[in-house]
# Entry
Amino acid sequence: MTTKNIPDGKFSAHGRVSLEVINSNIIVYHSKGPFNLELLTALEEVEQNTLQDLKNNAINWCEIVVFEESCMALDEVILGLTDYLKELKANRLSPLASAFVISEGVEGEYVMKDKYEACYREANIDFTVFNTIPDAMQWVGKYLEKH
# Structure
């Protein structure tokens, strides 16, 4: 599933996110920024069925967000993401934990790490950032074993 298949509203979505479910309890988001608020709206639409399936099957799950090229997002996106995460948490649709992969050289790697971390902290979702996908997968795997 990908946000590029969601029709544009008044403004075009900037950025792209596709997601895949691994082992029925890990969602990997492949994200290519920079991102605007319209992209967040498209993402919400794309992931709703997947999240509802996980909830209906009482599956604890984690997410890995892999950034390609850029992880930059407008401040309004950060505010919107925080609200969205809180809503997911209230509806028992949030991940147990989130691992972001921001490799060296991704635009915004130093600027955005703290902003994303603040979103997840405010929503009370465990969060950490890695440089590589294998490190993130290992952390998520161990996290799921404990929970």
Notes: Residues 37-56 form the longest helix (20 residues).
